[in-house]
Amino acid sequence: MDLASAMWSNTAPEGSDYFDAAHLRLFSKSFNAAYRDAKKYAYLEDGGLFEYDVVTNSQEGCPLKDVSIAPAAEQAGVTTVTVTFKAMSCYQDETVSEVRFKVVTEDGTSVIADLDRIVDGKPVSLVAEMKTIAQEGASPPATQQE
Known about the structure:
Blueprint: H1 2-7, H2 21-24, H3 29-39, E1 65-71, E2 79-86, E3 96-106, E4 109-119, E5 122-125, H4 126-138
Antiparallel strand pairs: 1-2, 2-3, 3-4, 4-5
Helix pairs in contact: 3-4
């Protein structure tokens, strides 16, 4: 969340990205595999995979306000860390957004296995989205019927 906050601040770090080499180490092996598979089909000019901020689930926003981080008890090897924040306050929108980080331990280190953006009250998995991108990218294009 520190990087998300920095990216939406007035002093965003130049060139930083959730998926740059410095930050990919924060994610699990399976997350990295899903990212690499999806990245093969990136279509943005800058080589990026997403046209939106995958943590705040937005294309536009303001410096994050009222960030709250609440880890839950571990269940079946996964600790869910719920983060709430306001991302649109500079537009007079005080809506509270939520993202849930699924944290696991790999090789003795806590890493992010997935993150669920909460949309209309339901979790939307980033790993599932990346797998869909890879699956659709690997599929042959549909032929047109005349």
